[in-house]
Write a sequence for this structure.
DNA sequence: CGGATAGTTGACTACCCTCAAGGTATGTGG
DNA sequence: CCACATACCTTGAGGGTAGTCAACTATCCG
C-alpha cells in the first residue's frame, strides 16, 4: 500500500469542485479566497485507507478534491453501514470543528486527493467571518438533509426504489460540481460498497441492478453508469432533488 | 382543534431544557441570555398540528420547550417516515437559517410549548457572536449525528435491536435535559408513531415491544416506559451514547 | 353508554438474507 | 504466454424477518 504523499500547491489541479461549493455557500472574493488559502496542504490517499477513525478527535479537517470517500459506522459483528458518500467538493469531517470525538470513520473508496486543513485555522476563520461560519453551517445542513433522505430511503423505499434514488442523487450531486453530465457518471463503487450504503447485501444489490438494467433504465459496465431513461429513473425512485439544496445558501435578508 | 395560543413570557415556565442545551453548547452569560431573550414569543401547539410544512421557507425558527415533535417526510403513496424526534431543548427547524426550503415537515406529537424565534433576529445574533454561531453549528452536528445513527439502525439492526436502541436513545436524551431518570420516562408515542420512526409497520412494532417485554427488558404501559434492565437493553441495542455528544461542544483551543 | 383511537393476535405473503457455487476480469510471476 | 491468484459479479435454492389484511379487544372520553 502506497503511503499518503504531501504535495505542494503547485502540483495541484485547480480546486474547482470546492470553488463551486463555496460559491453555492455564498462565499465570494476575500472570504472564498481565505478558505481556499487554507487548502494548501494536499494529500494523496490510496483507496481503502481511512482518513478518520471512529472515536478520533482529529486536529485536521479534510476537504475532498478528487475521488470518492465514505463515512462509515462499524458494528460489533463486523458488519458496517455507510452513512454518507463524500464527493468532490464535500468536507469529510466538518463536525470536527464542534465535536470532541467522531462517531464515524471516513474511508477513501478510490484514490483521493484531499486538502488537509488545520481545525484551529478553519475555526479561527469562521469565528472571524460570519459568512464563512454561515457557509460551513450550510454544508452541515446539507449533510443532514442527505442523511434524513437516506433514512427515508432505507426505511420506506424498496431496494429497487432505493437504488434508483441513490443513482439519481449521485448523478445530481456530481453534475452540480462538474463531474459527469445528465447521461451518466463514472461509478467507482463495487456492489459491496453500494450494499453498505443501502443497508442490504451485495447479492441483493446485484439482483436489483439487474432489475433496473432489464427495464432499460440504466446500464452499468466497466465502472460507468449510464442513465438511459432519466425521467423514468426519477419516477421509480420518487426522486425530488429539493433536499440537495442546489439553489444555494439562503441569504439572511 | 384548538388554535395555537400566544403567551407572554410571564406565563412561561423557566426555559430549563433549553438552558441546559445552551450550556452544553458552550453558551454562558451574555450570549446565553441573548438567545433566551429571543424566546419571548411562546406558542402552545396542539397535538398533530404541523409547525413546518414540507417545502416551506419559514421566517420562524421554533425551539421546543415542552412536549415532543417529529420531523417527517411524506411519500406519494401516503406513507411517511419520521427522520427525527424533537425533544425539549431541541430546535425544530434550525436549518431554516441557511436553507431556502425545508425538505421535511415538523409535527407536534403531543401538545407542545414552543418558542417562536424570528429567523432574522437569530441570524443577526449568530452573525454578531461567533459563540452563538458555534453553538448553533454544534446543534446541527448533533442532529446530523443522530440522523446517521438512525441510518445505521434502519439499515443494519433487526427490529428488536432497533427498538431497543430507540428506547436507549430517548432515555439518554431525555435524562440529559432533566426529563425522566434512568429508570424510565413518559412515552407519549403511539405504536404507529414508533413505526414511522423505525421504518416498519405498527403491527411489527407491537410484536417487537412484546418481545422486549417478554424478556424482562422493559415494561410499557399507560404511556410510561420503564427500563427494567438497563445494561441488558444497551447490550441488545449495541447502544453507545457517544454519538449524542453529551460531553458538550468542543472548544476551539 | 357509544364511538373513536390504540393495542393485540392470527394467517398468509413477499422481500430480502444466507449460503454456496460458478463465472469473469484483471494482474502477477514463472 | 500461460498458470495462478484475487477481486468482483452472477446465479440458484432455501429460510427468516417483516409486511399485509383482517378481526378482535382494550382504553379513553364525551
Amino acid at each position: 500500500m502506497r503511503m499518503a504523499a504531501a504535495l505542494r500547491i503547485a502540483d495541484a489541479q485547480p480546486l474547482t469542485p470546492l470553488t463551486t461549493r463555496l460559491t453555492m455557500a455564498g462565499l465570494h472574493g476575500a472570504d472564498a479566497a481565505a478558505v481556499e488559502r487554507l487548502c494548501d496542504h494536499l494529500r494523496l490517499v490510496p483507496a481503502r485507507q481511512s482518513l478518520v477513525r471512529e472515536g478520533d478527535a482529529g486536529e485536521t479537517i479534510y476537504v475532498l478534491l478528487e475521488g470518492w470517500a465514505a463515512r462509515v459506522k462499524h458494528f460489533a459483528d463486523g458488519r458496517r453501514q455507510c452513512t454518507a458518500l463524500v464527493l468532490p467538493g464535500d468536507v469529510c469531517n466538518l463536525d470536527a470543528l464542534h465535536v470532541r470525538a467522531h462517531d464515524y470513520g471516513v474511508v477513501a473508496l478510490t484514490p483521493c486527493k484531499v486538502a488537509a486543513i488545520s481545525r484551529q485555522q478553519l475555526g479561527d476563520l469562521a469565528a472571524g467571518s460570519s459568512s464563512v461560519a454561515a457557509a460551513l453551517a450550510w454544508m452541515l445542513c446539507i449533510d443532514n438533509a442527505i442523511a434524513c433522505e437516506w433514512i427515508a430511503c432505507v426505511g420506506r423505499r424498496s431496494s429497487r426504489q432505493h437504488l434508483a434514488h441513490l443513482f439519481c442523487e449521485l448523478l445530481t450531486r456530481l453534475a452540480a460540481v462538474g463531474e459527469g453530465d445528465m447521461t451518466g457518471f463514472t461509478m467507482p463503487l463495487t456492489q459491496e460498497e453500494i450494499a453498505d450504503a443501502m443497508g442490504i447485501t451485495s447479492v441483493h444489490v446485484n439482483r436489483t441492478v439487474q432489475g433496473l438494467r432489464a427495464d432499460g433504465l440504466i446500464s452499468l459496465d466497466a465502472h460507468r453508469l449510464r442513465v438511459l431513461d432519466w425521467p423514468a429513473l426519477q419516477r421509480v425512485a420518487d426522486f425530488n432533488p429539493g433536499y440537495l439544496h442546489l439553489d444555494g445558501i439562503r441569504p439572511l435578508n
